[in-house]
Structure formats: C-alpha cells, structure tokens
Amino acid sequence: MNGMKRAVGVGVVMLFAGLALACGGGETQAGGGGAGGASATGEAAGTAVTGAEITPDARQEAQQIYSTRCAVCHGAEGYGDGPGAGGLDPKPRNYHDKAWQDSVEDKEIESAIVYGGAAVGRSPAMVANPDLGSKPAVVAALREIIRNFGKQQ
Ligand code: HEC
Questions:
Q1: Which domain holds residue 147?
Q2: For position 133, what pLDDT does the model report?
Q3: What domain count does the chain have?
Q4: Is the distance from the beta carbon of residue 82 to the nearest atom of ligand 1 less than 6 Å?
Q5: Does the pTM exceed 0.90?
Q6: Would 44 be classed as within a structural domain?
Q7: Contact 47/40 with Cβ under 8 angstroms?
Q8: What angle is formed at CA 76 by the lines to CA 72 and CA 82, rounded to 5 degrees?
Q9: Which of 47, 63, 65, 73 to mutate to test the pocket of ligand 1 (most atoms within 8 A of CB)?
Q10: CATH code: domain of residue 104
Q11: What is the pLDDT of residue 73?
Q12: Angle at Cα 79 formed by Cα 125 and Cα 127, nearest 5°?
C-alpha cells in the first residue's frame, strides 16, 4: 500500500495498470475484429486526428509529453492546478471533473490537443501542439491519460 502515500504514485501505478491491460486484452480483440476500416471515413472526416490505435510506444511518449508540456498547467495529477495555471481564466481543465468528462467527446479532446483550445471553441490559453498532428497514436494516448484521470477520484 505504499502507493497510497502520494497521489502522484497512485496516478503512475494506474497508468501502468492501464498499459498492462491494454497489452493483454485489447490488442487481440482489435486483431480479431473487423479490419474493414469503415470508421475512418465517417468519424474522422472533420479532423485529421482521432481514434488512432494506441501502441505501447505511443503511451510512453504521451506520458513524457504530459509531464513536460501539460502538467505545467493541468497539474501532474490532472487537477488543473499546475504552476502555470495561476493567471489563467478560465482555468486549465480539471480532468477529474465528471460533468466535463461526460460531456466532452474524444474527438474534441484530441482536436484541442493538436489544434489548441480556440479550434474547439475553448480558451486560446489551451495551446496547440502542431507537431503532434503527425502522431495520432500519441494524441490518442494523451486522451487516454486524460480519461484515466477522470476515472480516478
Ligand atoms: C499554458 C497552459 C496550458 C498548457 C501548457 C496546456 N493546457 Fe490544456 N488547457 C488549458 C486551459 C486554460 C484550458 C481550458 C480551456 C477552456 O475551458 O476554455 C485547457 C483545456 C484543455 C482540454 C479541454 C478542452 C475542451 O475542449 O474542453 C484538454 C483536453 C487539454 N487542455 C489538454 C492538454 C494537453 C494534453 C496538454 C499538453 C500537451 C495541455 N492541455 C497543455 C491550458 C493549458
């Protein structure tokens, strides 16, 4: 139970748990399922990045990007209370906000990450990450990190 000491520890443990889960169960399902690719046409039409398959490498890169680029505003634990959050209005999104988690679509999260808040009708203080436009799996993994924060309490 050493992980209970610090919430940061808990977060890291949960992320690793998620990684193990996805490696174990998720991939076999995806392989056995439909390889038709029908979803690519409709859903992703409006945006360049959405719904990419998350590889273990992408998860690792996303984790690194979260700590180096996102935590400064959103906080290491995703509460929107990073050191850079102080002067911002609206505040950086608190990912633990259930109402927000329920209302926001994956596509909006991923678009906000790549194109910035203004592109999805939110604050321009949510900065764009154009370099991630060519890394849809990393963007999807960042979205997964954000969703996982929402599952914690
Ligand atoms: C300079 C501070 C800052 C940094 C750095 C930052 N954000 Fe944000 N982010 C914000 C603010 C402020 C909002 C709230 C925008 C709003 O609600 O209008 C936000 C909102 C969001 C949202 C919610 C968008 C929506 O449509 O509700 C997501 C998702 C997000 N950020 C992800 C990230 C990720 C991932 C990173 C790192 C790659 C990151 N942010 C880096 C300030 C920041």
A1: 55-153
A2: 96
A3: 1
A4: no
A5: no
A6: no
A7: no
A8: 40
A9: 73
A10: 1.10.760
A11: 98
A12: 20
